[in-house]
Design goal:
Layout (H helix, E strand, L loop, with lengths): L5 H17 L5 E5 L6 E4 L4 E4 L3 E5 L6 H20 L3 E2 H8 L14 H15 L8 E2 L5 E3 L2 E5 L2 E4 L8 E2 L8 E5 L3 E5 L2 H9 L2 H4 L2 E5 L6 H14 L3 E4 L4 H12 L8 H4 L4 E5 L2 H6 L7 E2 L2 H10 L8 H13 L1 E2 L12 H12 L6
């Protein structure tokens, strides 16, 4: 049986509540628990997923009543968006639903920090992306390469947009790929490194797609990487700072995140490999003069990551331990200490040729 569409799932959620009201039962909404205790790492699929523990949100419960109301309000709002073929963002949703209940001083929502988690609750409960519910997330990330797409009727060539590249939207579900000519995808944490590689025409010389996440990858960016990799069988190489934050950015792209473990099959890219930087690179490429002393928070984060199931590969254990022992980290910009084109002409070509990747 084909998976129901978002509107059908929302309608079913509403009908289930009505059935319980008609049966004179306490109406409830069941939502999978998103805490670490309910996150499962699948070594075979190389992804995080959510377990089968759930919590119930009851209407006739003083502790649950407000959140129950908020959940049904957001669900109804999403249904209206889908029916009206309208897309909006989380901030607009908050203001649209924010009001004071009649004959009371009680607000539906006081802050956006109340409404945002409700969207995730509905995503988890319905097993849907918020983008499928017509709610966009952060817009962040740029891409360039020999790729043509159709976006809302417009044909866009990623290789002919000047120095800026194509800005990745929060919703990429409706994009269709017209042509893709690339051997691999290079995902870059830093905007400066992306600009260096773009100006040097790295993507043309090596026939690849280069994407900057501009920090932690936004959902639209992660979904685009996953789609390109899955639909066109392209390997993905991730290029981040040599520090726990950069390595965690890589792990989120590859395995998915703990907060969105329920969407790892749509947002994770299991075939991704880490191309650098590493602590080992500091010595191998003569970067010692361009390192930064690791802070206590970096050391603690590295020690925590050594315990994660998805960082148990010997190669990762080695790099994490090296950072803890040497107390050194390095940013992508450290490669510029060897020359402004060292990254483009020596570091990355050597890594790719030797297939010097971490799993």
């Amino acid at each position: 049986m084909a998976e129901r569409n978002p509107k059908e799932k929302l309608v079913k959620m509403g009908n289930d509540i009505i059935k319980e009201v008609d049966a004179k039962e306490n109406p409830k909404i069941e939502i999978p628990i998103r805490s670490l205790s309910n996150i499962i790492y699948n070594d075979k699929s190389k992804s995080l997923s959510i377990g089968d523990k759930t919590s119930k949100r009851f209407f006739f419960n003083v502790a649950h009543a407000k959140k129950f109301m908020q959940t049904t309000m957001v669900a109804a709002f999403c249904k209206e968006l889908i029916e009206g073929k309208i897309h909006t963002n989380l901030r607009d949703m908050f203001y649209n639903l924010k009001r004071t209940l009649k004959d009371s001083e009680e607000n539906t929502f006081d802050e956006q920090s109340e409404s945002d988690p409700i969207v995730v609750d509905i995503e988890v409960a319905l097993d849907m992306l918020r983008e499928q519910l017509h709610l966009g997330a952060d817009v962040r990330g740029r891409v360039v390469g020999n790729v043509s797409i159709v976006d809302r009727g417009d044909v866009v060539n990623w290789g002919k947009l000047g120095s800026g590249g194509w800005a990745i939207p929060s919703i990429v579900e409706e994009i269709t790929f017209k042509s893709v000519d690339a051997k691999f995808i290079l995902v870059i944490e830093k905007n400066a490194a992306f600009e260096r590689l773009h100006e040097d025409k790295f993507w043309q010389k090596h026939n690849c797609i280069i994407i900057t996440t501009q920090g932690q990858a936004a959902r639209g960016c992660r979904r685009l990487i996953q789609r390109l990799s899955a639909e066109f069988k392209l390997p993905v190489y991730v290029f981040c700072d040599s520090d726990p934050y950069g390595w965690y950015i890589y792990s989120v792209i590859k395995f998915g995140s703990m907060s969105l473990a329920h969407q790892s099959d749509r947002l994770g890219t299991p075939n991704a490999r880490y191309i650098g930087l590493t602590v080992s690179d500091i010595e191998e490429f003569g970067l010692d003069k361009f390192t930064i002393r690791a802070k206590d928070v970096d050391i603690k984060r590295a020690k925590d990551m050594m315990k994660y199931e998805w960082f148990q590969a010997p190669e990762w254990q080695k790099e994490l331990k090296l950072l803890v022992d040497k107390k050194k980290k390095a940013e992508l910009e450290a490669l510029s200490g060897r020359g402004l084109r060292f990254m483009t002409e020596e570091y990355l070509p050597k890594k790719i040729k030797n297939k010097d990747f971490l799993p």
